[in-house]
Amino acid sequence: MQVWDLPLRQFHWGLVACVLAACVSAKLDGETALRVHFLAGYGALALVLFRLGWGFCGTQHALFASFVQRPAVIFEYLRNSSGKRYPGFPGHNPLGGLSVLALLAVSATMAISGLFTNDEIASEGPLAQFVSEQTVHRFSNLHAWCEIALYVMVALHVCAVAVYWFVKKQDLVGPMITGTKRTSDDEPAIGTNDEALSVNARGFILFAICAALVAFIASLAS
After folding, report:
1. CATH topology of domain 6-77+91-218
2. By CB distance 3.0 to 4.6 Å, which of 78, 100, 140, 209 could disulfide with 117?
């Protein structure tokens, strides 16, 4: 059954590519690596902004309302999910929803802080010129700490995928590629082909707006 819509899947793999490019380029020297790092950061910011918007106007399982749960629900899920399978969550389960929020928070903080950073050598974020040196220093430190936090979050994410694959016998990667997932028969799908086209168009428009906003911010670089 179709669970993950195309815009959501494109966001997921797009963010993976941007984060990977940003992390690798940060370890390399040269003007090209620096340019790649900034472009990857801008791309990640546009994608995160898109995901925040899609959490309110996307399809059922992309909506924040469908997977953001109260702490009591998360603890109850942890208490009752010791078995191999825990039915009832065709989209993100309560723990998965929490990890989505954490990854978005870290990615957003890292991308936004990068706009205000200055290494005092060769790179400066487009908004660094509008704040004090002390503020730039704080954002630069925050950007560095976010890199460590991002590594931890990615490692936990990969470990969770592995646990679900080997222990719970659930494939989390395949559905994020194809959009389909084995669920109970009474779970609603995304809709007909016409509805899917409408969803894709809405997603494209939203991302175009987010990309235009980030492009405007990038243009402010002195």
Report:
1. Fumarate Reductase Cytochrome B subunit (1.20.950)
2. 140
